[in-house]
Amino acid sequence: CRDIKMRVTRCCCCVPIKVGAYIIGSIHVIGLILGVILVSPLQISLEIFCGATFLYMAYRDNEKNRLLYFAAYAVYCFILGFIRMVFVFWDKDEKALVQQYCKTLQDQIDMAREGKPGWEATDFANVQDCRSQVGTAVARDELVSLLLTLFLQIHFCLVLWAHYTNSHMVKSKGGCQ
C-alpha cells in the first residue's frame, strides 16, 4: 500500500511555494541592507547568517541546500523569538518610559492650571492611574506584537519546509529535478 501525502504547492492560496521561499529570502537580503544603513550589528549578523544560506540555495538549488536554508531560518526564528521575548518580559525600560510620559503629562497639567481643567481633560484620573493604564497598554501591545510575529514566523517556517519537501518534484512544479 502506497502512502499518499498531500503536497503543498501554494502559499496563502495564491503564491507558489518556490516564489514564497524566494520572497522570504529577499526579505533577508533587504534586511541586511537596512542593518548596514542603520548600523545594527545584531541585525547584520542575523541577516548575513540567513541571507547567505538563501543566496547559496538560490545559486545551487537542490534538496540539501533547501534543507540548509530551512534549518538556518528555523535557528534565525528561534534567536529572534528569544530576543523579542526578553524585551517583552524585561519591562524596566518600558516602566521608565511610562513614568516619564505620565510625569510630562503631570507637568503640563500643573503649568496650565490657571482656570483650565486638570486630569479631567485626560483619560486618566491621576498620575497613578496614568501609569497603570499606559503600562498595561504598552504590555498588551508588546504581547500582541510578539504573537503576530510568532504566527508570521511559523508560517514562513512552514513555507520553507514545504519548499524543502517539494525538492524532489520537477522544476516546473517548484522542485529541483
TrEMBL record:
The keyword Transmembrane applies. Keywords: Membrane, Transmembrane, Transmembrane helix. It comes from the Eukaryota. The chain crosses the membrane at residues 29-55, 67-90, 143-164. The keyword Membrane applies. This is Uncharacterized protein. It comes from Favella ehrenbergii.
